[in-house]
Every structure is written in C-alpha cells, then in structure tokens.
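Here is this case:
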Amino acid sequence: MKPIFQSVSCPFCGYQTDICIEASDEDQDYVEDCSNCCNPMHIRVHKDDLQHKVQVFVDADDEQYY
C-alpha cells in the first residue's frame, strides 16, 4: 500500500502538521515529536479492512488510561 499523508493537530499546542502513514496489515502504535513544540504525540493507526478505511488517533503521550 502506498503511503498516506494526513494532517493532524498537536494535542499540546494545536499546530497542524502532516504525518506520513504506512498502513500495513497490523495496527501501529508509535510516538512522533511535534515539529512546532517538540512534545511527543502518541499516534495510533488502525486499518479497517471491512470498511476499507485507515483510522488515525492522536493524543498526548502523557495521558493516562484507566
């Protein structure tokens, strides 16, 4: 699959930045630094084969889940 370019907002400063996503068959979970404020953005990529979509979730790396 060819790379997908997606605009996302930094959860810290709100800066719009473009990220390049390689949508493989498996879900991805990684951290990428914001190009504006250098804080870590937690990025999750889910490929939905049933609906032929790629879902991108962005949140702050320091958020806690209970």
